[in-house]
Amino acid sequence: MKNIFVILYCFLLxxxxxxxxxxxxxxxxxxxxxxxxxxxxxxxxxxxEKYAIESSKLVNPPKNRIQIHPIVKNSNNTTEKVLVIPxxxxxxxxxxxxxxxxxxxxxxxxxxEQLKKDIENWxxxxxxxxxxxxxxxxxNNEMIVKIQD
Length: 149
Hints:
Blueprint (H helix, E strand, L loop, with lengths): L1 H40 L3 H13 L13 E5 L2 E5 L17 H7 L2 H40 L1
Antiparallel strand pairs: 1-2
């Protein structure tokens, strides 16, 4: 009889905790997914990369991960990776970060302010992710301690 209570206790402990855990995780993950999508929609690969990295911290890799491979072009004994951009972006101007052209953009106060705000938003989100990961770690440790007791 005692074993049944222990099993029931563990079931309730894990069941209730995981519901809370998933609910808490979903808001942070949802924010990152939509920030990534919006960044791609607005041709902001600089931000899409940052948000995609943060969102991947919140989830475990899937068992059946979708394989994405780089497109590599070989010519004249050199290998170069090719950046593939959707046709819908063909009219957009491409500017790489940390270049003279990018630095020229920063001289425009409106653009500079927008980029500054975008980075601040990302930094704030990154701190939220770190906080969430810490909470998840503490919840997991708390469950382990309760099981061991």
